[in-house]
Amino acid sequence: MSDLLSIGLSGVTAYQSALSAVGENVANAQTPGYARRDIVLSERIGAGNRDFGGVEASSVNRAWDAYRAADSRYAASAASRADVRQQWLGSVETTLDDGPAGVGQLMGGFFDAAQSLAASPSDAQGRSAMLTALDSTASAIRTTANGLSRISDGIAQAVQTDVDGLNADLKALAQVNQSLQQTPVGLASRASIEDQRDQIIDSIAQRIDVSASIGANGTATLTLGSATGITLLDPNAQVTISAASAADGRIQLRMFANGTTSPLPATGGRLAGLVDVAASTADKRTALNAMAQKFTTDVNNWSAQGIDGNGNPGGPLLSMTAGAASLQVATLDPSAIAAASTDGTENGNLLQLSSLRGSTGAEAGWAALVSTNAQALSSAKSEASATAARRDSSFAARDEVSGVNLDSEAADLLRYQRAYDSSAKVIQVARDTVQSILDLFGN
């Protein structure tokens, strides 16, 4: 009779655990990073290791596929890099305004004003309009240079935010590794820790490309996905990540390990994308400075070869002392425009100004700058679309294994509920039988 009670009790206990697992699955069906729990039920051997002793919940397992998890992390790294590039290249495109208030059209307006002045070179209003157009062009170039500088600063701040987050994730994962070493396999608490481990690895993968290796005891070892031999974390140690910014805004990732600082050659994740756009933005700032210097030199040289309204050799109309952000007109005196040529032709020098608009002029340099970024942005948008689809597909494949299917959980709920009721019936029968026997002796 004691065996019957024991069998019933084992069933009630085991199926209660199974029902708890189903309830946890249902409650966390929409929880990010949660992997479905499965209860492993096994036969319990009775007395003498021969008789059936009931059933027991031997362990709680997570539904997980290491290959699909690794594939989803790789896809997430690629998508994060592409998203960052699209975002910041879009910001650069906005700054390189090619509309009516942009450098290109205002520069063209300056040349058009000079052409109009050539029809009546002594017109004071026309001279003022030409200088105003030149001032507007210089202002637009300064605005663009300052905008690109702010983008570089924003990228640097985003890098630091992700570096801080990456170091925090690595520290948290190291603590999770310690917890895994101390928690027995098969417990519900162990499954929760493993969920936490994989969520942290997913977060790291979005920041930088990593390859994760899970040991027999559940601890994680992370290596840089793009370079073999670079370990970011193992059960015994972790590296510290930092970022160094150059004066032009270029950024280099670094890692500190074993007392040595060395470059960190990331190719995936947000940090890789940020490093990439930092370099491309620095290139555009360099190109803008070169274009502004070309424009300044060409206009001043043009002015120097003519005669101004006071009969003097033309002086500089532009000054630039510290890059495009310092560009400004040198004078607002309409008579300072060197409209005449040295041979006395009243509009002779103005007619020569259009020669600055060729394929090697500042206008062409600006057009090349805008076109280069537009092409890069178009490519980034295509890459972002493709990698997002790849990421979503890999996540769906992972969720096929680890996700919670409410229909399946409902079926399991019914099955375990009936088994629980049956086990309770066994206990009820045993109790009634014992009571009947006691009643016989009592009579």
Give a written overview of the molecule.
There is one protein chain. 61% of the residues lie in helices and 14% in strands. It is built from 9 helices and 13 strands. It has helices at residues 2-27, 66-95, 103-119, 124-182, 188-207, 269-304, 348-352, 362-402, 406-442, and strands at 37-45, 52-62, 210-214, 220-224, 231-234, 237-238, 240-245, 251-257, 260-263, 306-307, 318-319, 328-329, 340-341. It has a 4-stranded antiparallel sheet with strand order 3-4-5-6. The chain has a 3-stranded antiparallel sheet with strand order 7-8-9.
Topology:
Elements: H1 2-27, E1 37-45, E2 52-62, H2 66-95, H3 103-119, H4 124-182, H5 188-207, E3 210-214, E4 220-224, E5 231-234, E6 237-238, E7 240-245, E8 251-257, E9 260-263, H6 269-304, E10 306-307, E11 318-319, E12 328-329, E13 340-341, H7 348-352, H8 362-402, H9 406-442
Helix pairs in contact: 1-9, 2-4, 2-5, 2-6, 2-8, 3-4, 4-5, 4-6, 5-6, 6-8
